[in-house]
């Protein structure tokens, strides 16, 4: 594919203020699928747990010699985002057999992002932190996916502000569904406050993750699927197969993370892999011709 520096990427935030709701898994799994479609894709690891970085090969992002991270970019104006971008890997960094994933790139996360909220509290134009970083590089990518931390603080506000789309990842339950109202309110508030900075993000998808595939596996969660559909209609992203919603529960997901190999290549023929493919299609992405 020819490299153009003038693309208009789709910028998508994977959010939920609740921890463990499938944001990081979905950011990297969707990212890998889009890269496989031939779309140049950047995953931004904005969470101090660095799960997206780990999943894409970098177990200790703060310990790579001479390598900048997202935290360096946040706190030091002389560091450009470009300096924190690395190729995504299938397998652990430095291990034999590890390979670069074509078209997939990563803004390296950092454990120091645990100080980001505190840093931003007193920073100038704090809500614009990620816009300022992404603006110079975004024309190099077709898609940018931001893996947000499990909060709705300043880090996430900055992600929503720069995004076109917000996808809320949730486990299918009543309590989880109720939590989406807060995300919707935050999106509306960011739009209202920062419209002059181009804030225009919309909630464009509700992605159910870790969905039991048989009723016997979880009647409560099955009801959760129904409730999600009733509340959010077509925003609820499908999975693969008749009537399937979201990403089915799969032991391959935690296994793939432990092996630092994205699901697409760890379990190519698996159910959850097929579900992420369907989600990518439902979001309007398709394979690009070379
Ligand atoms: N479809 C699935 N089947 C089985 N396990 C899953 C599935 N999706 C996610 N998980 C597991 O659920 C856990 C939480 O997922 P993940 O780390 O993606 O959530 P998160 O929202 O990014 O969490 P945090 O807010 O802590 O960053 C992980 O252990 C992951 O392996
Ligand atoms: Mg995460």
Q: What characteristic shape results from the CA principal axes?
A: globular
The CATH topology assignment is Rossmann fold
- How many structurally independent domains? 1
Can you summarize the main beta sheet? 7 strands, mixed
**What are the segments in which pLDDT stays under 50 over at least 5 consecutive residues?**
none
CA-atom Rg in angstroms? 18 Å
Q: Architecture in CATH?
A: 3-Layer(aba) Sandwich
Helix content: 25-40%
The helix-and-strand class reads alpha/beta
Itemize the secondary structure elements and their pairings.
Layout: E1 10-15, H1 23-36, E2 41-45, H2 51-55, H3 70-75, E3 85-90, E4 99-107, H4 116-121, H5 129-134, E5 143-147, H6 154-162, E6 165-170, H7 174-193, E7 202-208, H8 219-232, H9 252-258, H10 263-266, H11 271-282
Parallel strand pairs: 1-5, 1-6, 2-4, 2-5, 6-7
Antiparallel strand pairs: 3-4
Helix pairs in contact: 1-11
Residues 16, 19-25, 47, 49, 51, 150, 169, 209-210, 247, 249-250, 253-254, 257, 272 line the site of adenosine-5'-triphosphate.
Tell me about this structure.
- This is AAA family ATPase.
- Residues 10-193 form the AAA domain.
- By secondary structure, this protein is α/β, with parallel strands linked by helices.
- It has a single domain (10-279), classed as Rossmann fold (3-Layer(aba) Sandwich), CATH 3.40.50.300.
- It has eleven helices and seven strands.
- The chain has a seven-stranded mixed β-sheet with strand order 3-4-2-5-1-6-7, sandwiched between helices.
- Strand 3 (85-90) and strand 4 (99-107) form a beta hairpin.
- It is globular, with a radius of gyration of 18 Å.
């Amino acid at each position: 594919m020819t490299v153009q520096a003038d693309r208009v990427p789709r910028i998508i935030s994977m959010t939920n203020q609740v921890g463990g709701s499938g944001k990081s898994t979905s950011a990297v799994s969707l990212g890998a699928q889009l890269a496989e479609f031939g779309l140049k894709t950047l995953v931004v690891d904005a969470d101090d747990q660095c799960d997206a970085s780990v999943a894409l090969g970098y177990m200790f992002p703060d310990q790579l010699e001479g390598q900048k991270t997202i935290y360096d970019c946040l706190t030091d104006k002389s560091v450009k985002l470009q300096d924190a971008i690395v190729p995504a890997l299938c397998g652990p960094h430095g291990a034999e057999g590890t390979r670069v994933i074509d078209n997939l790139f990563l803004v390296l996360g950092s454990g120091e992002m645990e100080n980001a909220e505190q840093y931003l509290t007193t920073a100038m134009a704090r809500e614009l932190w990620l816009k300022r970083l992404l603006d110079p590089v975004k024309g190099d990518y077709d898609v940018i996916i931001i893996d947000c931390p499990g909060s709705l603080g300043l880090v996430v506000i900055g992600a929503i502000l720069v995004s076109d789309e917000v996808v809320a990842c949730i486990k299918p339950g009543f309590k989880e569904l109720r939590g989406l109202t807060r995300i919707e309110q935050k999106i509306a508030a960011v739009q209202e406050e920062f419209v002059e900075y181009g804030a225009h993000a919309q909630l464009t998808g509700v992605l159910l993750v870790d969905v039991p595939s048989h009723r016997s596996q979880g009647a409560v969660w099955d009801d959760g699927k129904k409730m999600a559909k009733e509340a959010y209609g077509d925003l609820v992203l499908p999975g693969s197969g008749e009537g399937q919603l979201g990403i089915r529960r799969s032991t391959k997901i935690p296994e793939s993370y432990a092996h630092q190999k994205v699901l697409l290549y760890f379990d190519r023929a698996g159910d959850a892999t097929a579900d992420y493919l369907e989600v990518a299609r439902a979001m309007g992405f398709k394979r690009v011709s070379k």
